[in-house]
Amino acid sequence: MSDHLAGGYDLVIFDLDGVVLLIDKPIPGAAEAVERLRAGSTPIAYATNNASRRAGEVAELLNGMGVSAEPAEVLTSAGAAAALLAECLPAGAKVLVVGAEALRDEVRDAGLVPVSELADEPVAVVQGYGPEVGWKILAEAALAVRAGATWFATNTDRTLPSPRGPLPGNGSLVAVLRTALDRDPDVVVGKPQPGLFRTAAALSGAQRPLAVGDRLDTDIQGAVTAGVDSLLVLTGVSGPADLLAAPEDRRPTFVTADLSGLFGPADDARVPVSGGEAGGWRVARDGDRAVLSGSGDPVTALRLLCAVTWDGVAPSAITAHSPEAGELLRSWGL
Ligand SMILES: [Mg+2]
User: Fold this and answer.
1) CA of 153 to the centre of ligand 1 (A)
2) Which residue among 16, 68, 101, 148 is buried most deeply as judged by most CB within 10 Å?
3) Which pTM was predicted?
């Protein structure tokens, strides 16, 4: 039992977009993966940087797609930001909220007073994504920060996915203030900061959590920072070329095509220490170059190649020595 990947962990923390859902549709196999973990009594959690919905709304959305979720299993960067504000500020402190209604509600429920103007004398500004955020509230926030308010950002994802392609995310709105103020936020709450993962582990009493994500710069870097093992699935934002070029603090423990990899052997999904042979592929290293030959499952080749690029071979220095290898490298844009 425990030689399957998920069997080695006492909590599986899922990112949402690109992992269990794509915008408004479940990713095929996600509902089954969640059920299978529940059947095996592995606790699960959902950790999302999106601050525009509350935990209960996220759970409702997931259940509506057939992916089972309890509100208590959901951690949002809005909830985490409010909890952090409540830790740092006295009860009843005024916080200027730039973001969605969900963020205002979280701030209020944390015992603080959400306000919208400098005239209310806020001691902190919290900024999260909201589709109605406009110049007026950004201007109030800029004035408040300049007057000494502490600036919290729920997350700094530059984009957020949509059916029409990537749209400006909270990171883009944070960049507006960053430009106006010529400084960075004092505190960033969501991934790649480790807070969401640490809170998820603490809430379920987990000693050995696994983080599952689709983005190297948020999910995987957050897991590395939190000291948590991670699984990258290739159903979302980060692709093979990103993975091969990943800096040390953005390298996952495991890579699989999708969530079904949770139930395969852990050793098959692990990025090996060096190249070599696996599943019909062969990666031969020659100094600062590497040659891929053979054929088989693309993700198997990807893991073998990560072993050499993470050890100093530039992705552009990989060459193909079989038609299938050539086709694969081309499909990854290499
Ligand atoms: Mg994601």
Assistant:
1) 18
2) 16
3) 0.92
What does the pLDDT read at residue 275?
Answer: 83
Confidence at 1, pLDDT banded by 50, 70, 90: very low
Q: How far apart are CA 121 and CA 240, in angstroms?
A: 48
Task: Show Cβ contacts of residue 296 under 8 Å, excluding neighbours closer than 6 positions.
Answer: 278, 279, 280, 281, 324
122, 145 in Cβ contact below 8 A? no
Mean pLDDT (the chain, rounded): 96
pLDDT of residue 257: 98
When pLDDT is averaged across residues 299-323 and rounded to a whole number, the result is: 97
Check: CB of residue 262 under 8 Å from CB of residue 4: yes
Q: Is the per-residue pLDDT at 177 higher than 80?
A: yes
What fold does the segment set 78-188 form as a domain? Rossmann fold (3.40.50)
CA distances to 57, 59, 199, 210, 219 from 226, in Å: 27, 25, 10, 11, 10
Determine the distance separating the centroid of ligand 1 and the alpha carbon of 238, expressed in angstroms.
9
Q: Letter for the amino acid at 151? A: W
CA–centroid distance, 14 to ligand 1, in Å, is 9
CB 313 within 8 A of CB 285: yes
What are the residue boundaries of the structural domains of the chain, listed by start? 5-49+192-267, 78-188, 272-331
Kindly indicate the confidence band of residue 23, based on its pLDDT and cuts at 50, 70 and 90.
confident
Give the mean model confidence (pLDDT) for residues 109-113: 97
Largest CA-CA distance found in the chain, in angstroms, rounded: 68
Q: Where are the alpha helices (DSSP H) in 182-265?
A: 195-204, 221-226, 240-244
CATH of 5-49+192-267, one of 3.40.50.1000, 3.40.109.10, 3.50.50.60, 2.60.120.10: 3.40.50.1000
Q: What is the pLDDT of residue 2?
A: 59
Query: What gap in Å lies between CA 185 and CA 155, rounded to an integer?
Result: 10
